[in-house]
């Protein structure tokens, strides 16, 4: 799992679903990990025929709750619901401001991994930027069978197409979380009618988000791919062994037929009557044909073997090849402030300040170099305040 995205958690999914149902005017009765949902009579949803239904929360054993609607990040019902929500609900909007996150700033790793402590931090917003947060459904399957699927939340700046992991985390953990209804009376939910983003930019940002989401589950996909490739290996090996076996069988049968043909030739030559001779000739023709058929089959097989059974091999590996599909299923437009953060840091009683380009929700956005030696600051080359002044691990 890389940092670019944030998995959609069970609690986030429940909050999103609750919000979606409530938005449709439904009532929800909550008891023991089950919701009794009653939809208003005029509302029709694709995933269920009746106006009243039960939703089971969390992973369930399919056999115990066969046919029930199970809400979990991996469940089929969650996918149907998100598909439908994406079609029915207009794109959401959210403004992330310094005020909204109560001035709790995200410090860069070159601070959190260092010996310095942050005494104070202040953010100066310079301009607003727009990002889009998408829930991306990633399906992994082969031609023959469904493998697995993932649901990832990813936020991408619409201009730079840069992923903003901190914002996905705030949205998933903070807004799509229990007790944080996504309604307009929440301080943070502020629809800005003037917010206009071209559909082309949005499409590009969503596509960048889809790529980032796949990248985020790359390790898991590699695992599925390896396991599929192992299945293909063993299926091919089984095929190869069967063909080898068949080749041996054919050779034996052909040898036996040769011997019998030899005997029949003796019979023809030594026939005592015309009838016996005709019968022996008849039999010989029959066996000769049979032998020719087997020889053709053997020849074909030997030819296939020379090519390493390439044709069948390709067929098997194609059947086990992994196909990855991504689909954005729900999205929220986000405006967020970009500017500069000033950190007042101290170490062993000495205090100094450091400034960095910063975005609300995203943290420090660009590389920062050491004031003294100009080396880039990083988790390994962290900040340091010594009697010689502020610097980094490599110069102080
Ligand atoms: Zn330095």
Ligand inventory reads: zinc ion
Structural class estimated from helices and strands: alpha+beta
What is the number of E strands? 13
N-to-C order of helices and strands:
EHEEEEHEHEEHHHHHEEEEE
Q: So how many helices?
A: 8
What is Rg? 34 Å
Distance between the termini: 34 Å
Biggest sheet statistics: 7 strands, mixed
What do the pLDDT scores average to? 83
Provide the helix percentage. 25-40%
What is the global morphology?
Answer: elongated
- Stretches where pLDDT is under 50 for at least 5 consecutive residues are 178-193
Which band does the percent of strand residues land in? 25-35%
Keywords, please?
seven-stranded mixed sheet, 396 residues, binds zinc ion, four-stranded mixed sheet, 8 helices, alpha+beta
Helices and strands, with pairings:
Blueprint: E1 6-7, H1 10-23, E2 27-31, E3 34-38, E4 52-57, E5 69-71, H2 76-88, E6 92-96, H3 109-112, E7 117-142, E8 146-157, H4 165-175, H5 199-216, H6 218-269, H7 274-306, H8 310-319, E9 322-347, E10 350-359, E11 363-364, E12 383-386, E13 389-392
Parallel strand pairs: 4-5, 6-9
Antiparallel strand pairs: 1-8, 2-3, 3-4, 7-8, 7-9, 9-10, 10-11, 12-13
Helix pairs in contact: 6-7, 6-8
């Amino acid at each position: 799992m890389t940092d670019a995205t944030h998995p959609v958690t069970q609690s986030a999914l429940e909050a999103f679903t609750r919000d979606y149902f409530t938005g449709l005017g439904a009532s929800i009765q909550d008891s023991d990990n089950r919701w009794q949902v009653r939809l208003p009579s005029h509302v029709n949803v694709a995933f269920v025929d009746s106006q009243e239904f039960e939703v089971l929360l969390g992973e369930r054993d399919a056999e115990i709750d066969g046919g029930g609607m199970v809400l979990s990040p991996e469940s089929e019902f969650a996918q149907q619901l998100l598909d439908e929500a994406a079609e029915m609900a207009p794109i959401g909007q959210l403004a992330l401001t310094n005020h909204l996150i109560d001035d709790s700033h995200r410090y860069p790793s070159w601070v959190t991994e260092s010996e310095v402590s942050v005494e104070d931090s202040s953010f100066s917003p310079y301009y607003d930027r727009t990002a889009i947060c998408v829930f991306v459904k990633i399906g992994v399957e082969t031609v023959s069978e469904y493998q697995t699927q993932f649901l990832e939340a990813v936020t991408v700046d619409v201009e730079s197409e840069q992923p903003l992991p901190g914002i996905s985390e705030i949205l998933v953990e903070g807004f799509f979380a229990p007790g944080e209804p996504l309604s307009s009376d929440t301080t943070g939910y502020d629809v800005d009618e003037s917010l206009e983003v071209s559909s082309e930019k949005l499409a590009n940002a969503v596509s960048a988000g889809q790529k980032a989401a796949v990248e985020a589950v790359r390790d898991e996909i590699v695992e599925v791919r390896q396991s599929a490739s192992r299945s293909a290996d063993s299926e091919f090996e089984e095929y190869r062994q069967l063909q080898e076996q068949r080749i041996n069988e054919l050779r034996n049968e052909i040898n036996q037929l040769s011997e019998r043909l030899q005997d029949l030739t003796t019979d023809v030559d030594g026939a005592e009557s015309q009838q016996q001779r005709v019968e022996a000739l008849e039999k010989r023709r029959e066996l000769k044909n049979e032998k020719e058929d087997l020889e053709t089959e053997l020849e074909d097989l030997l030819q296939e073997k020379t090519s390493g059974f390439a044709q069948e091999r390709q067929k098997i590996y194609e059947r086990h090849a992994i196909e990855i599909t991504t689909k954005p299923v729900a999205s929220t437009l986000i405006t967020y402030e970009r500017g500069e953060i000033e950190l007042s840091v101290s170490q062993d009683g000495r205090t100094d300040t450091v400034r960095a380009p910063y975005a609300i929700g995203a943290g420090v956005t660009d590389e920062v170099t050491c004031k003294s030696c100009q080396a880039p600051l990083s988790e390994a080359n962290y900040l340091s305040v010594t009697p010689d002044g502020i610097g980094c691990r490599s110069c102080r």
